[in-house]
Amino acid sequence: MKLTLEKKILAGFIICSVILATVAVISFKNSEKVIISNQWVSHTHEVLYQLDQILVACVDAETGERGYIITGEENYLEPYNSGKSRIADLLAKVKELTADNPTQQVNIANIHQQVDLLTGHLDECIQARKTAGFEKAREMVATGRGKSLLDDIRRKIDNAKAVEQTLLAERKQVSEEDARNFNLIFIILLAIIVLVLVVVYFIISGNLRALKKAEMETAQKNWTLTGSGELIKEMQGNRAPGELAQAIINYLAGWLDAQAGALYIAEEDNGHLKLAGAFALDKLKKERAMIRIGEGLAGQAAAERRTILVTDIPAGHFIISTSFGEMLPEHILAVPVIFEGALVAVIELGSIHGFTALQQQYLQVVMDNIAIAITSSLARERTRELLEETQRQAEELEAQQEELKQTNEELHEKTELLEKSEAELKTQQEELQQTNEELEEKANLLEDQKERLELAKMEVETKARELETTSKFKSEFLANMSHELRTPLNSILILAQLLTENKSRSLGDKEVGYAKNIHSSGTDLLNLINEILDLSKVESGKIELEITEVNLSDIAESLRSMFNEIANAKSIDFTIVYPIEKITHPIHTDHQRLEQILRNLLSNAFKFTGKGGSVTLDIDITAEVVAFSVIDTGIGIPESKQGIIFQAFQQADGSTKRKYGGTGLGLSISRELAHALGGEISLQSEAGKGSRFTFSFPVKFDPSGAGQPAKPAKVIEIKKPAEGHAKRLKKQANSGDLTEAAVDDRYLIQENDRIILIIEDDESFARILLDFFRERNYKGIMAHQGNTGLSLARYYRPDAIVLDMQLPVMDGSEVLRQLKNDPDLRHIPVQIFSGYDRRKESLELGAFDFIKKPVTQTDMHDAVDRMEDFIRKKLKKLLIVEDNRQQNEAIRELIGNGDVKAFSAYAGGDAFEIMKKEKFDCIIIDLGLPDMSGIDLLEKIKGSDDLNKIPVIVYTGKDLNKDEAARLNKLANTVVLKTANSKERLLDEVILFLHRVESNLPKEKQQIIRKLHRTDEVLKNRKVLIVDDDMRNIYSLTNALEEEGLRCITAENGKTAIGLLKEHPDTDIVLMDVMMPEMDGYEATSEIRKMKKFGKLPIIALTAKAMKGDREKCLEAGMSDYVAKPVNIEQLLSLMRVWLYR
Known about the structure:
The protein is built from 31 helices and 30 strands. By secondary structure, the chain is an alpha/beta fold. The protein has six domains: 200 residues, de novo design (two linked rop proteins); 119 residues, GAF domain (Beta-Lactamase); 178 residues, Heat Shock Protein 90 (2-Layer Sandwich), CATH 3.30.565.10; 147 residues, Response regulator (Rossmann fold); 140 residues, Response regulator (Rossmann fold, 3-Layer(aba) Sandwich), CATH 3.40.50.2300; 119 residues, Response regulator (Rossmann fold), CATH 3.40.50.2300. The strands form seven sheets. It has a six-stranded antiparallel β-sheet. Strand 16, helix 16 and strand 17 form a beta-alpha-beta unit. It catalyses: ATP + protein L-histidine = ADP + protein N-phospho-L-histidine. InterPro entries: CHASE3 (IPR007891), CheY-like_superfamily (IPR011006), GAF (IPR003018), GAF-like_dom_sf (IPR029016), HATPase_C_sf (IPR036890), HATPase_dom (IPR003594), His_kinase_dom (IPR005467), HisK_dim/P_dom (IPR003661). Pfam families: CHASE3, GAF_2, HATPase_c, HisKA, Response_reg.
C-alpha cells in the first residue's frame, strides 16, 4: 500500500513520539535508581555522624565527672548531664537507622551495654565525691575502670563505623554505575531520534519535490486550458473574418507575451495570404497586406504546413512599432492553421523574450479551434454574400412584377373612368357651378370670423404681456425699493448703534437716548419692509415651502422662550397647553412658515392685551388635523370688523386716532401662508372680551390640497401638567411615549434643585443619561438639537451641561462656543460625550472634560464626581510656573479675587513637586524655565495619570519654531503669546478654564473681559476690502470696523476691487456688495476666484434684495457667505471672526 505524504508525516511523528516516550520512561527509571543510591549514601553518612556523636557525648560526660571530682562545684557537672541526656537519644537514632542491618544491630547493642556500664561507673564516682569527699572519689578514678570502659566504647564504635564505611563504598560504586548507565542509554536513544528525524526529512522532502512537480504540471495544464477557454470565448459570436482575426491575434499576443503579431487568411484558388489581423506592426509591414505562399517566413510555414521558429532575425523583417520608436524582435514563430488538410490561415508572432515549449505546445492545442472558428466565419461570410445576392435578385424580380401588375390595373381603371366621365360630365358641370356659388359665400363668412378671432387673440396676448410686465415691474420695484430703502437704512442702523455705544463718552444721556430711538425706529422700518416683501411673494405665488418633520414640543419651547420676556414686561399670564399623550406625534409641514404664522398671531394677542390679562397657546392634534389656538383676554374685535382684518393694510380700528399701531399686514400674510400649507385661520371674538384665532392644517402636508383650508379642529381645553401629576409623567416617560419636554423634569423644577441640561440627539442615550442623573438627585432637561439646547441653557441656567458634538441644526462645537462666549453661561461646566474624537477641539473651547463614546456607567460616575467636586469647590487652585518673580507676582495679582488661590513655582522641578502635593484646577506655564524646558514639563504632566486632565495654559514670549508649535498644539489647551494686551487674554483664558462666574469678578476685570471680546486678536490689524457703490455704506462700515481694530480699504465697484486686490495681496477678507455699476458683485467674485492667490480668500456678500435664492446664487458665484442689509454689526463681526479664524 502506498502511503500519502500526510500519512508518512503522521507515521514519522508517531515513531518519534514512541521513542521520546521510551526515553522518558527509561530516564525516569534510571533517575529513580540514582536517587535511591544517593539516598543510601546519605543514609550511611548519617549513621557515621550519629556514632561519632555518641562517642563525643561519652567524652563530655567523663570530662564533666572529672571536673566535678577535682573542684567539687556543681556547675562542672553540666557537660556530664548534657552528655548523659544526649546518649540515650543518639543510641535510639542509630538503632533506628541501622534497623535493616542485623550486624549493626548487635554492634549497637554492645555499644549500648558498654555505655550503660560507663554511665554507672561515673555516677558512683560523683556520688562518692558528694558523700565521702575528694580522696575517696580519686581512689575510684585511679583504678582506671572508667578509662577502660571508654576505650571499649571507642573500639565498638570503630567496629560499627568500619561496617558502615564498607557499605558506603559499595553504595557509591552502585550510584556511579547507575549514573553512567543513564548517560549511555540517553545518548543511544537521542541518536536513534536524530536518525529517525533524518529519515523522515528525506521521505517528506522527496514527496514534496514530487508534489511540487505535479503542481507545476497541473499549473501548466491549467494555463493551457484557461488560455484555450478564454480564446474560445473571444471567438464566440457571429463575427466577420477580419474582426475575428483581429480578436484572435490580440488575444494570442497578450496571452503569450508577444510584442508583435499578424494573422494571414489564405485566399481561395490564388495562392496568396491576406493580412486580416495585426498587433503592434510597423507601417511597412501593414502595407504588405498580401503575400504569396512560399514568400517570407509566414509564406514558407504555409507552404511546408509546419511550425517554423526563427531566432536570428534579419534587419527590417519584423519591426515592432511603439509610441517611443521601433525595435526588432529576437524570436519569430510562424504557425500554419490547417482544417481537414486544407490551409486556412497562418499566425506569425514576434517576441523579444522567446517562446517556451509550453507556449508552443499551447499554440498546437488551440490551432484546431482557431481553424474551425475562421472556417466557420468564412463560410458565414460567403453564405451571407450569397443570401444578399439572392435577396437582391428576388426583390428586383418582385419589383418588376409589381410594376407590371400596377400598370395593367391603371390601364383598366383609366378605361372605366373614361367611360363614366363621359356619362357624368354634363351633370357635374351643372352641380359644380351651384357648389362654387355656395362655397364662395361660406368662404366670405369664414374670412370675416377669422379676422375677428385674430383681433381677440391679439388683444388677449397684449393683456397677458401687460399683466406679465406689470407683475415683473412690481417684483423689480419691490426688490429695487428694498435695495434703495435698505441701503440708507443700513447706514442709519450702524451709525445709530455706534452712537448708542458712545465709546468715546462724548455724548450725553439725552443724545444716547436719541440714538436709541433712531435705532429702534430703523429696526421697525426694516420689519415693515420685510412684511411688504413677504406679502408680495405670497400674492405672486412665488413662496417656496420646505416640508420637513416638525417636533411640536420644539415649536412650543421656541415660542415660550420668545414671548416669556414680553409677557413678563407687560405682566401678562402666558401659558402653552397641549395633550401630553399626543405631543409626540410628528407632523410634516414647513417649520419656518408655521412658526411665522404663530409669531404673528401671538404678537397680535400680546399687542391687544392689556396689563394683567392672559394669552394662551392651545395645541390640539387629531389623526389628520393639527390646531393651534391663540386665546387672549384683550380688546376683542367687533363682528362688523371681523371680515376686513385679514385684508392687507386693514385693522379693526383704521382711524387716524387709533390706539394700537401696526401695518395691518401680519394677519393677511398669515392667512395666505396658512392657505399655502393647506390650512385655514378662523376667528371667534367679541368686542371687549378677547379673541380666539385658530390655525388648523393637515398633520401631513398634501401638495394637491395646498391652498385649500383644512377641516377645523375640535377645540379642547388642555392644561399644563400640574405638580402633583409628576408620578404619572415619570411613568409615561419610562414607557418612551413622550418628547423631551414631557419626559424630562422641566415642569417639576423647584427652588434649590440641581439642574442638568442634556443636549444629545440620540434619544435612547439621552434617556439613559436622564435616568442616571435622576439617581444622582438632579432634575434633568433634554434637547435633541443644538439650537434648542442653547435656548434652554439661557432660560434655565443649569448647574452643569452634558453635550454631544454631532448635533442637528447647530453643531456641538458651535453650541459650546456660544456658551463660552456668553458671560452669563461660560462658568457652567460642560461635559462632552461624543462618538467622534474631537477632544482637543472641545477642551480648547472650554469644555470641562471629554469622554469618547461608548460610555460606561463607571465613566459617567467618574465624570459626575469630578464635576460635583469642581462645583462644590468654592476656592479654585491655580499654579503659576514662571521663573521671573515680578511677572509671577503680576499674574497672581491679575488672576486673584478671593475665589482663586494661586501657587507660585520658579522652576520645572519645583512645580512638579508642588503638583504631587496639591490638586490644581489650572496651570500657567512659561516655556523659559531654568532647570528644564516648559515643553518637557508639559510632557511630564500629560504623561501622569493624576495630572493629565488639568487644563494647561502656556504663557510665553518665546518665538516658536514649527516643531515647538506642533508639540505645544498637542500638549497645551491654549497658548497665549506675551504681547501688549496678552494679560487681558490670559485673564479671559483662566476665567474660561476655571469656570469662574464673570458677574462675581470686580467691575474693572469684567470691563477688561468685555473689551477683549469686542476687540479680539482674530480681528485686530486684519485688512478688509469693502466694495460698495454707496458711499454712505462705505462710511458707516469703515467707522464700525476700524473701531474693532480692522484696517479698511474701499472700492466703488467690482472692477476697482480687482485692481485693489492686486495692489494689496495681503488683504484678509472682502465685504462685497452685489448690485453695483460697471461690474456687479457676482462677476467680480468669479474673476477673483480665477486668480490662484485668492482662491480661498473669504468673500462675504452684502445685499439689500433679500429675495429667495439670493444666498444660493451668491455661493454659486464663489462667495464664502451672505449677510442681508441692513447689516447687523455684531452678526457681521461674528461671521468675520469665523472666516478669519479658519
